[in-house]
Amino acid sequence: MNILKRSETNQYSSQSLRHFKHNIPLFLHTFICCAGLTTKSDTNRWYNGTFVIFCIIFLFVNIDYWIQVSVNLYEIEDILAYAAYILIYALSTVAWYAVRSKRKQLTRLLHELQEISLPVQRKKINFLLIILCCMHISFSITTTIFAFKDGVALLGYGYNLRDAYKLLIFIKILLYTLVFPTFLNIVALLYCLICLRIREFMKELTRELTKCSTETFVILKRAEILKRKSRIDDILDVIQDIFSLPTFIIVVANLLNCFSVLSAYLDNYNMLMSGEISVIIEWSLYAVNSLGCLIAVLWIAGDIPVKEHKFKKTLQKKINMRLLFAGNTEKFKSEKLLLLKQDFVFTGLDILSYRRSSIFTLFGALMTYTMLISK
């Protein structure tokens, strides 16, 4: 009996992912499966093997960075920047484990989203994925160039490696940039795509409510709308449960990266002005990536309460028009309870609310604390 249930569950998860991969880029679908973020990694030998590889990469990067800092502790000038990066890699590992631990809920969520239509934006999404891949390679190349000039000894545990071993340095940097920022970028992209699906569902429901005439806004129609809105609320709760910790880590890690880049820029302004092109490109790439990731997550997730408020405003207008049309003969208890309910807002561990205004708050705090610490 247990074997039968297990086979049904595996078939369910396999079918859900097979359907879902037609609505998201193939690369993104493959990546989340390889990273062990869905139940497909539990049933597929190939994905089970790539999951083990991801475990080794995350473990290696964290241990290796600790060794580097410990060996070269007295030679590191900007200790705060390196401390920030230690925390960033550790947070990336926690984010991966957090999504991995919710893989069953994520698989069910992806299956639920099949019936929610999303405008075809494959070209834009594929273009964005190409940019992320190119940035991963660019991070690795620019960091390697800078390391060959000044930091080979640091990456080589205090030893100046010969040219034959510099390929190992490049491979090591590839693994580093895979953990951060590439992995967090992929999780942020998946989160944004899911939020876009919910946003489209809410927009479609609002449009249908707007087109509904006063005469047809009867009990059955209102019950259907409330049922669909209840389904949206359930999905939003699942998204919050899965991505509360990972998205909070994405925000914190990218803020730490921005702090690291800004503090390094303030401490090494003369070096930048002397023409260190590789350093300028590296820091610019990291800054642009972190700022873009922060803005995308907060902007798209912050659009959910905006769309819900618009839906409630439209519903309130329809109720008022129906009352004028039918008088006080109809009751709107369920509708009024929905209107009294607060707009849903995604949060990070109930610490940070994902509103669009939070972008300015975070950037202001970043600039203030960076200036204070760098003095």
TrEMBL record:
Q: Which residues form a coiled coil?
A: none
TM regions (residue ranges)? 46-67, 79-99, 127-148, 168-194, 238-266, 286-306, 357-374
Keyword Transmembrane helix on this protein?
A: yes
**Top-rank taxon:** Eukaryota
Query: What keyword terms does UniProt attach to this protein?
Result: Membrane, Transmembrane, Transmembrane helix
Listed name of the protein: Gustatory receptor
- Species assigned in the record: Caerostris darwini
Gene name, per UniProt, is AVEN_264611_1
